[in-house]
Amino acid sequence: MSDKKKDHRVGIIPFSVRGDLIAVLFVTSHTRGRWILPKGRSKKGETDNEASLREAFEEAGIKGKVLTDFPMTVMIDKSIGDGTTERVPVTYYPMYVRKQVDEFPEKESRERHWALLDDAPRVAYHDDYLEVIKQFKRLAPKIKEAAKANK
After folding, report:
1. pLDDT for 79-136, tens place per residue?
2. Three-state DSSP class for residue 150
3. From residue 68, how far is each of 11, 19, 38, 143 by CA, in Å?
4. 3-state SS string over 63-94?
5. What span, in angstroms and rounded, lies between the C-alpha atoms of 92 and 59?
6. Residue 26 has pLDDT above 80, yes or no
7. Are 15 and 6 in contact (CB under 8 A)?
8. Which of 15, 125, 128, 136 could form a disulfide with 76 if both were Cys (CB 3.0 to 4.6 A apart)?
C-alpha cells in the first residue's frame, strides 16, 4: 500500500432532502464519542465509491447513492490511540441516503444523529468538520439537483 493510500481516508456526508430542507447524518466517534462523519481507509483494490459505501454501512447503517462529482478534501485530526492525534487528508463525498437500517456492524459502538444542514455546525465536532460542512453547504443547490436525479 502506498503512503498516499495509507494516510488518505475517504468519507461521506450522508444527507436526505425533504422539500427545501437538507438534513445531515452524524455518527459518534469510537474514541471520544463526538459527532463526526463516517470515514475510513480504502481497502486494497477498492475505489473511493466502494470504500464510501462500505464505511457508510459499517459506521452508520445506511445505504444510498454516493455523488462522486462533488469530492471535498479537508485535513482532519485523527486520534492515534495514546492521546495524541495526527493530521490526515480525508476526501468526503455527499451520499444521498436511501435506506437506514437498525442492524449494522458498528451498531454497538456508535450512535446516529440527523441534523438540519443549518444546525450542522453546532453538531459537528471540531473545526475539521466545520470546513467540510461549509463546502457542502456552498454546493447544496447542485447536490440537491443530483439527489433528485438519483431518487
Report:
1. 777 778 888 999 999 999 999 999 999 999 999 999 999 999 999 867 778 999 999 9
2. coil
3. 11, 23, 16, 10
4. EEEECCCCCEEEEEEEECCCCCEEEEEEEEEE
5. 15
6. yes
7. no
8. 128
